Amino acid sequence: MLVGFKATIPFTLASKFISTYNYGFLSITPTTTLFTPPASLKRDENKEVDNYAELKEKVENLGICCNSVTPEEYTRLMCPKCKGGQLIERSLSFHMSWKRNYALWRCFNFECGWAGQILAHNSTATMTSDGVHQLGRTNSPRILTEENLKLEPLDDVLAAYFAKRMISKDTLERNHVMQMAGDQIIMAFTYRRNGMLIGCKYRTLEKRFWQEKGTDKVLYGLDGVRDADEIIIVEGEVDKLSVEEAGFPNCVSVPNGAPQSIASKELIPPEEDIRFSYLWNCAECLEKASKILLATDGDLPGQALAGELARRLGKERCWQVCWPKKDEFSSYKDANEVLVNLGSEALKEAIECAVPYEMQNLN
Ligand SMILES: [Zn+2]
């Protein structure tokens, strides 16, 4: 069912009636998916079918049998490389997009690890990692690897930097925190989805940030919240690692920090909501959660970010974390400050004392 865009429809990921979109149309479907099923595609339908058939053929030429695959879902298949290893498991995690005409896969058999992605030849769509259309994207798909990004394990300087910020070696390794090869000291926070490297954010010791170009915006730490009923959202990668130190692996960070202030205007349609595209790109994880804890920075931009997240995720399931007081006049700013100054127990306590967002923000 496709309907024209109506400005009055609230775009929240929490709604039972999820807003989905494609090709400039907005469709409202009473399902829990953000994506329109193939049958409702209207524009260039025949071309879509051609592309899909071509992609399917290419995938099958690689030995992957994708007859049982539902587009837009992750399916476990038999890996043609290792045949499922000793346990003969369906070790290949496979994802195919109908609309964007690409497929990607990774084998979770430890000894195999075969991974790849493929685009339908005559597709005009551009590659994204999850099938969500990104406006203005004309780049070819990029296959990211630690090798082609020239990433290497953390050296002593950065190990000491993280130790000072109370982030343990285990947490760094679990999150594949690396550094850029070369003379400069540059941290590399790797963004992954189903174990696959799909983006990277770099940071110097002087707090200069940049991101790998031509990649989709997603939440940092996404694989840790895949089936989480409660999700904690923080404002930076180091805060995500800090929250993990306090015993919460179900935490993600936004990829691009906080806005200066909360926008006064009504929410815009998802396809135009570029700054928050990471929410729409991660909708399949976020929409499953019954409770979302907003643990952004205590400053004004951090509170604006909490507000922007809450109005998109649905205020009724959002809770707000308030950071402990530093002295009579001020509070600690973020999760890492609390961890460094008060320790992991205090950070855990602050998170557990979150209050309902609507109660905290009555006006
Ligand atoms: Zn395999």
Question: If you had to describe this structure to a student in words, what would you say it looks like?
Answer:
- This protein is of the alpha+beta class and 363 residues long.
- The chain folds into two domains: 43-119, no CATH class; 151-360, Dna Topoisomerase Vi A Subunit, Chain: A, domain 2 (3-Layer(aba) Sandwich).
- The protein contains ten helices and 16 strands.
- The protein has a five-stranded antiparallel β-sheet with strand order 7-8-9-10-11. A five-stranded mixed β-sheet has the order 13-12-14-15-16, with helices on both faces. A four-stranded antiparallel β-sheet has the order 3-4-5-6, with helices on one face.
- The site of zinc ion (ZN) has 8 residues, from loops.
Largest sheet entry: 5 strands, antiparallel
CATH architecture of the largest domain: 3-Layer(aba) Sandwich
Unreliable runs: 1-11, 14-44, 122-141
Which CATH top level class of the largest domain fits? Answer: Alpha Beta
Count of extended strands: 16
Cofactors, ions and other ligands in the entry = zinc ion
Helix content: 10-25%
Beta content comes to 15-25%
